[in-house]
């Protein structure tokens, strides 16, 4: 990032709590801690709130043991720790849209034990989004959420307000996809680290400001030259990942991360809504239609072909599974997804992620993985 | 032509000096090991240890640094070998060395002090898949070492003791620290040392086997790394993997350094 093009995203990421506090002071609006990217941010934005996705801090902590099992995933534990440590004390509300049981426990512990919480709301989105009843059910749940927010704020959430919020969020999705298009080409003008800064900050920065920043970056990209070796083109697969130290390391040993299937990346923004007369239906259907998390991908595994399609579309030579330890939904998919990719010519590497990761041993694994694919004859 | 391979492990530094022989009519004698050398770094920093180990090996072989065409380094500390021409990972080096010693080998298990890993290899000795233990030491030699200390035995005695037991005592803890607590509990329960030693080595073998199964067990199995010297572990690994035979090189701790030296030589000839 020698040219500083992505510095704003990096600054937002590194000072995300400062950003949220500042936003609150500037606007007087409420800040809401959100868990899971199935949260319909449109409703919160329409209500004048700032949705801020809870991320971990990637540092050892000792506060979650009374609340959540040690064998629940490190992301859930790290997320809950941030609440218990008071790092989201600027958030009046907390909300979860159902995905996995581990996140549910994080949410339950958060709303019960984080003193700054003034209100909470749980959206029981169906996990079986392939059921013919799912869309209707989720539509009803989002209507209930709308009713709750209206009662909370004392203001009507009109269709016009919701349409404006939906347009704003859809624009953010469109701009992020436009940014990711630059990763398709040989020697991409955007690194994996930079792309992650852009996509992860969209999950807690005001979309208006984020969109403006994306437009500035997109205007500069066509003439950008990174002058770095591309190396092997990698895809990353997994749940949440914002371990920037790991991403930097991977891209420093002869590779470029060109695409992902993660909720910190493409799964968050890949699809936009479709036009509907009923705005709540447009919002609800969008979340039912988005690239699926493994918790919402049965009985058919729709994500397998989606992941393979992304790998091919972005010309990824190989894929790295970033498996959050004890994340059962992703680990359950792993054997079949690995086979699906490898039988289609995409070799894979499995790495188990924890709250903190051993960068040295991981570097050796990445380098060994690169050696197994080396075009150069080692011997 | 002389090439060198240096394996900067977490506990020891291994050096192999390889000589190109080119014996007419004997293609299998293309290379010969001129000298091997191993040392404990002791108080030395890693870069100093690499220098000393290399210089000692050269002196023992009657060589000077300028006699060596290329030096390849591997191991957890390979970046500290400042004079190395190139660095390669333990997976690539171990697989190459093992297949050089055992051309039919397609599964290579490497258990050193810090790490255990399994590699699947092709006929050329190229690692085509691998799996290793993550943060924990329960699948590595240091685990067995810690447990032997708890029993006040040397590693050699520990391995031999386990062979005298026919009991199967499951160890539930997968963490070295908790496993030590289990060992202490077994001692308090007056469990014979032989049975405890077998329980520990069964547990290590089981962990290693689980890693190897991730890449699949195919063809001849070769075990490399310092744990080859532990007969009890070898026996436990055989049972755990369900194989009749595991090939054991004479100098198991040098195989990765040998792989390095081989790749260095072959790269010079390519």
Strand percentage of chain A, roughly?
Answer: 5-15%
Q: Please write the CATH class name of the largest domain in chain B.
A: Alpha Beta
Q: Largest interface: which pair?
A: A-B, 15 and 25 residues
What is the helix content of chain A?
Answer: 40-55%
Topology as H/E string of chain A? HHEHEHEHEHHHHEHEHHHEHEH
Q: How do the strands of the widest beta sheet of chain B line up side by side?
A: 3-2-1-4-5
Number of strands of chain A: 8
SSE class of chain A: alpha/beta
- CATH names the topology of the largest domain in chain B as Nucleotidyltransferase, domain 5
Individual helix count of chain B: 8
Count of DSSP-assigned helices of chain A = 15
What is the domain total for the residues of chain B?
2
Using the alpha-carbon principal axes, give the shape of chain A.
globular
Assembly type of the chains comes to heterodimer
What is the CA-based Rg of chain B, rounded? 19 Å
CATH superfamily of the largest domain in chain B: ATPase, nucleotide binding domain
Q: Let me know the number of strands of chain B.
A: 9
Radius of gyration of chain A: 20 Å
Question: Would you kindly provide a written description of the structure presented here, covering whatever features stand out?
Answer:
The complex is a heterodimer of chains A (379) and B (270). In chain A, helix 14 links the parallel strand 7 and strand 8. In chain A, helix 7 (159-181) packs parallel to helix 9, helix 10 packs parallel to helix 15 and helix 13 (302-313) packs across helix 14. Chain A is of the alpha/beta class and 379 residues long. Chain A has a four-stranded parallel sheet with strand order 2-1-3-4, sandwiched between helices. In chain A, strands 6-5-7-8 form a four-stranded parallel sheet, with helices on both faces. The radius of gyration of chain A is 20 Å and the shape is globular. Chain A is built from 15 helices and eight strands. Chain B has 270 residues and is of the alpha/beta class. Chain B has two domains: 2-96 and 253-269, Nucleotidyltransferase, domain 5 (2-Layer Sandwich); 131-241, Nucleotidyltransferase, domain 5 (2-Layer Sandwich). Chain B is built from eight helices and nine strands. A five-stranded mixed sheet of chain B has the order 3-2-1-4-5. A four-stranded mixed sheet of chain B has the order 8-7-6-9. In chain B, a hairpin with a 4-residue loop joins strand 6 and strand 7 (116-121). Chain B is globular and about 60 Å long. The interface between A and B is medium-sized, with 15 and 25 residues.
């Amino acid at each position: 990032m020698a040219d500083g093009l992505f510095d704003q995203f990096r600054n937002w990421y590194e000072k995300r709590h400062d950003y949220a506090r500042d936003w609150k002071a500037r606007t007087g609006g409420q800040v809401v801690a959100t868990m899971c990217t199935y949260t319909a941010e449109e409703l919160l934005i329409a209500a004048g709130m700032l949705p801020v996705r809870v991320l971990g801090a990637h540092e050892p902590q000792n506060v979650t043991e009374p609340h959540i099992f040690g064998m629940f995933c490190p992301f859930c534990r790290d997320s809950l720790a941030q609440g218990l440590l008071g790092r989201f004390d600027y958030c009046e509300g907390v909300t979860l849209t159902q995905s996995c049981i581990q996140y549910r426990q994080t949410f339950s512990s958060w709303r019960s034990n984080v003193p700054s919480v003034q209100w909470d709301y749980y959206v029981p989105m169906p996990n079986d989004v392939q059921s013919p009843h799912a869309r209707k059910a989720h539509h009803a749940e989002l209507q209930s959420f709308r009713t709750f927010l209206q009662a909370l704020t004392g203001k009507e959430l009109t269709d016009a307000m919701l349409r404006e919020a939906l347009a704003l969020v859809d624009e953010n999705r469109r701009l992020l996809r436009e940014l990711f298009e630059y990763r398709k080409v040989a020697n991409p003008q955007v690194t994996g680290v930079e792309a992650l800064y852009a996509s992860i900050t969209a999950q807690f920065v005001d979309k208006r400001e984020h969109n403006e920043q994306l437009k500035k970056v997109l205007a500069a990209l066509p003439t950008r030259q990174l002058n770095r070796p591309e190396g092997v083109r990698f895809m990353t697969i997994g749940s949440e990942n914002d371990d920037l130290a790991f991403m930097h390391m991977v891209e420093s040993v002869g590779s470029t991360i060109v695409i992902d299937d993660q909720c910190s990346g493409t799964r968050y923004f890949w699809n936009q809504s479709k036009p509907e007369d009923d705005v709540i239906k447009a919002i609800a259907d969008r979340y039912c239609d988005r690239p699926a998390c493994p918790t919402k991908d049965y009985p058919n595994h729709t994500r397998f072909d989606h992941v393979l399609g992304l790998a091919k579309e972005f010309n990824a030579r190989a894929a790295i599974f970033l498996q959050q330890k004890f994340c059962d939904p992703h680990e359950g998919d792993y054997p079949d997804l690995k086979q699906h990719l490898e039988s289609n010519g995409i070799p894979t590497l499995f790495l188990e992620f924890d709250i903190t990761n051993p960068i040295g041993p991981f570097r050796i694994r990445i380098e060994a993985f690169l050696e197994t694919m080396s075009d150069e004859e080692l011997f | 032509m002389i090439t060198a391979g240096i394996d900067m492990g977490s506990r020891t530094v291994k050096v192999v000096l390889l000589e190109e022989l080119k014996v007419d009519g004997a293609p299998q004698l293309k290379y010969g090991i001129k000298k091997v050398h191993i040392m404990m770094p002791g108080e030395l920093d890693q870069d100093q240890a690499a220098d000393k180990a290399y210089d000692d090996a050269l002196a023992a072989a009657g060589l000077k640094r300028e006699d060596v065409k290329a030096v390849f380094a591997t191991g957890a500390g390979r970046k500290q070998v400042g004079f190395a021409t190139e660095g390669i990972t333990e997976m690539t080096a171990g697989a190459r060395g093992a297949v050089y010693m055992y051309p039919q080998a397609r599964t290579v298990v490497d258990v050193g002090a810090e790490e255990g890993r399994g590699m699947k290899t092709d006929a050329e000795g190229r690692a085509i898949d691998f799996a290793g233990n993550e943060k924990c030491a329960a699948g590595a030699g240091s685990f067995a070492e810690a447990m032997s200390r708890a029993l006040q035995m040397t590693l050699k005695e520990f391995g031999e003791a386990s062979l005298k037991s026919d009991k199967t005592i499951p160890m539930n803890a997968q963490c070295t620290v908790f496993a030590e607590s289990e060992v202490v509990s077994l001692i308090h329960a007056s469990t014979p040392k032989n049975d405890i030693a077998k329980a520990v080595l069964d547990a290590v073998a089981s962990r290693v086997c689980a890693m190897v199964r991730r890449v699949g067990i195919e063809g001849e199995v070769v075990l490399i790394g310092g744990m080859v010297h532990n007969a009890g572990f070898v026996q436990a690994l055989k049972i755990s993997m369900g194989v009749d035979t595991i090939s054991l090189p004479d100098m198991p701790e040098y195989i990765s350094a040998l792989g390095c030296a081989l790749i260095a030589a072959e790269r010079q000839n390519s």
